[in-house]
Amino acid sequence: MLILDLIGGTPLIELREIADADGAVLMAKAEFRNPSGSVKDRAARAMILDGIQRGMLTRDKIIADATSGNTGISYAMIGAALGYSVMLFMPRNASRERKATIRGYGANIVETNPLEGSDGAYVAARAAVDAEPERFFYPDQYNNPMNPAAHYETTGAEIWEQSGGRVTHFVSGMGTSGTLMGTSRRLKEYSGGVRAIAVQPSSPLHGIEGVKHMDSTIRPGIYDDRMIDDVITVTTEEAYAMAKRLAREEGVFAGISSGANVAAAASLARRLPRDSLVVTVLCDSGSRYLSDSFWVDGE
Question: Is residue 61 annotated as part of the catalytic site, yes or no?
């Protein structure tokens, strides 16, 4: 077995303490169980293997893309496993832990203006690739159809099977939007009654790393708002608070975007009948945010 063979098949766990006893069942896909520690392993594997199969990624090329952290870690892991060099463009203010992990795998980081966020990293990556196209393989996670396809083929199918076909609502934040787009499309094919709920930060200026405020950012090419049935907004403070609750009430040490997802999903579940089943995503581990002070603030 290779490290890439461990991607996917993550458990679906029930969040009993956070769910309202009178509301719907609340479950979450533990994507931090993927080998590099996040949901992004699924899309990164699909995009890189597709590039190899189509002859676009060859041994003389460097894998290059923009990232806020998690996809970059996945690229770095897969590059190390398959013997490819990796260069990643990411905002300077990305968490210390994410940057250290990427460098630990041997990948290179080009830090971009933190005030420009993920959009700035995207523009910088495109400029570098356009200047030397023969040097790079550019998966372009924001526009690559293999990104949502990975979740269509794996995440959506796993949720349906693990929930026994009982899932009624799927809730997810959006960075590239690949998780929400691909998973929702698969679940809606299984049952037209499944509703897809997007999670967005309540403001363009927020601290939920890896999640986009779609109305104020460059929209990914793979994003299709026709797939979305509703949108729930979450503040940075709500995301932080829920990440702490997950650790202290459920024993689940998950990151900030996971906190945002669960906060939205729990809010929804409280308003639904008890026979509903809400599924969301625990995108990564809280260990990638240990330098953030909110873990101990207000204890």
Answer: no
